[in-house]
């Protein structure tokens, strides 16, 4: 299958190793992966701030970059959800529909489309998973604790395939980290307090490596960890699933 790799702005600028890990994982499972070099922001920051009318050029460019692929995959749940919910174009709506219905966050693509049941990764650490809001409540990659239903987690299913890895059990499985995109700028104090609470749960339960599927949330938590000089490393789940 032909897969277009969508790498969000902040991953491209600050965490290129995450994009590389995602690429290597997809190729390992037989995907023919391409990276459209002209891709830019998907438009989520403007839309989240109430300026969706400024995202039209982003939509058109995204369609031009990704409409020709069987699937589009990204190591970012929030950006994927934005495209799924908001990508439209009056002149190219058929292509927009194809993109909206064929874009996947990395862990859901590995579990739902590639049906991965075995990994060769080795990562001998205690790992705590941050279930980001967009991935969990928007893409449903994990069960929400407020629903009375059998629990599941696609990221944890994949992490359980990694030899040597021990999953940390947290007190609050799916609490928001406080990042929230532009929320962390507009409501800095609240955002930081939420992040501290989230990090404290990992500290209390012995997390050595904090991971998740949204590098934006992890970036926020990593800033708090570094400022408090805590002995926790932050890594995107793609890096762990690709570990040797």
TrEMBL record:
This is Cysteine-rich domain-containing protein. Coiled coil: none annotated. InterPro entries: Cys_rich_dom. Signal peptide: none annotated. GO terms for molecular function: oxidoreductase activity. It comes from Runella slithyformis (strain ATCC 29530 / DSM 19594 / LMG 11500 / NCIMB 11436 / LSU 4). It comes from the Bacteria. It holds the Pfam family CCG. Residues 3-84, 127-222 form the Cysteine-rich domain. GO terms for cellular component: cytosol.
